[in-house]
Each structure stands twice: as structure tokens, then as C-alpha cells.
Amino acid sequence: MVMPEGESEPRNAREPEMPNAAAPAVVPRMARPEIHAAAPALGWYTDHVLYHEVWNRAGLSRRDRSLVTVAALITGGRMAQLKGHIGRGLSNGVSPTEIVEVVTHLAFFAGWPNAMSAVPVMTQVFDEREVRVKDLQRTDTAPATSPNPVRPPSEPLLRAGGPFSATMRACTSRPVVDELWNRTELAVRDRSLVTFASVVALGEFGDLAVYARRAREDGVQVGELCEAVAHLAFYVGWARACAAATVLDGGLTISTGV
């Protein structure tokens, strides 16, 4: 509708005005048309802030942003959004084998039901991308472990005492400590990043600093962890990410140059 000069369109007939928003050259529409139609401000923020700004921030590669996003979505059981982000991860350089291993890894940290629910979503993406799942699977039944095992992770269950912790160690130490972290389908550095993102998504802040220190030891830079938390604010919620940032600010002695 063309309005007479000097008159403006009705507020609900155009995209919302965002104060102090920079005018980018071209911002592609990432939100679905129905989102723009029903909630135009949400569509605008999705296009301009989440995808145009956040996903393009320096300090964390798009590949790593895909890893932490997929980890957060699986951990939160957000299967409706997982399909698109698995596809985005493949486009950002995460290999199909690494996607499979992220799902497997998160079974131990996000729970078996969430990992099992992620498998059909993952295979649907693979089918659409013509990825042959059978070509990714090992023909033997033994886990693919590194010939040079990494040191055991600083899992909280390894430090606690008492009968409950002792039972946990007896039940889970072998698959988690001796096998999972030594599997070769996903680099140890990436396992730490995925685990850190899952713990943030769970809101398990009591041991968050432990996993942050492990990630640093495994090669994740402090700046990358900072960016991961800020990125996750858009996927697990502002309040949860702010709580994680507060815990990490108080629980880690870090230098952003490390």
C-alpha cells in the first residue's frame, strides 16, 4: 500500500522498527515466512540479530557454533529445531561421522532418551543430503578408541565420596572415562566443547567450572568459551546463560589472552 507523502504506514503493516539497528547491506531472511507473518519482530530479530550478527561474531568459528548449538538442542530435547541445525552443521564443516559421535557422546551427558530421539532427526538429514549412514558405521562391534589414551576427564563423580558416588563410579567409569573420551570419531577438544555446552544447557552450574577447565586443557581457548556462553543465550535462554557467565566469572581464574 502506497501512503501519501508525510504519512507513515500503520505499525502492524510493516516490519518493526528496531532502535539503533545498523543497516546491513543485505540480510537474508532466515526465519520461516510464517514466523515473519505471525510474529514480525521475532522474524526480524532472528534474521538480523541471531543469524546476521551472532553467528558471524569473531571468536568462535561457525563450525564450533554449530557444535554447541546441536549439543544444546539435543540436551534440551528441542528436536523440532535440531533438523535444521544438523544440516547447518554439515554446511559449516562438521562431518557426518562427527554428528553421529556428538549424539553418542551426549547420551551420557544429556540422557539416553534425548540421544535416541535425536537419531531419527539425524538420519532424516543424512537421507536428504544423500549421506550413506552404513558407510559411517564400523563393521566391528568394538568402540573405536585412540591408541594413545587421553587422561581421564575431571568428572565430578571421580572426586566425590560416599556410597552413592561409589556406585556411580562402578556403573559408569568404564564407559565414560575409559572408553567415551578416547573414541576417535570426535576430537577430544570438540568433546570438551560439546560437553561444556550441554552442561550450560542443563543448568548444572555446580560443576560448570570443572568442565570449563577441562575444555581449556583440551585446547578450547577462553575467548571461545566466552563466545560459546553468549551464543547459547539465544538457544537456552538469557537467564541461564547469564547465570553460567556469573558462575564462570567467579569460579575461574582466567585471562582472555589464554
Secondary-structure map:
Blueprint: H1 33-38, H2 40-51, H3 62-75, H4 79-91, H5 96-110, H6 112-128, H7 133-136, H8 163-179, H9 188-202, H10 208-217, H11 222-236, H12 238-251
Question: What is shown here, in short?
Answer:
The chain is mainly alpha-helical and 258 residues long. It has twelve helices and no strands.
Describe this structure in words.
The structure is a single chain. By secondary structure, the chain is mainly α. The chain has twelve helices and no strands. The chain is globular, with a radius of gyration of 21 Å. 29% of the residues are buried.
Uncertain stretches of 5 or more adjacent residues: 1-23
Assign an overall shape: globular
Taken as a percent bin, the fraction of beta residues is under 5%
Helix percent band: 55-70%
Number of helices: 12
Number of strands: 0
What value does the Rg take, in angstroms? Answer: 21 Å
Secondary structure category? mainly alpha
Distance between the termini: 55 Å
Q: How many strands, what sense, and barrel or not for the largest sheet? A: none
* Overall average pLDDT: 85
Helix-strand sequence:
HHHHHHHHHHHH
Oligomer: single chain
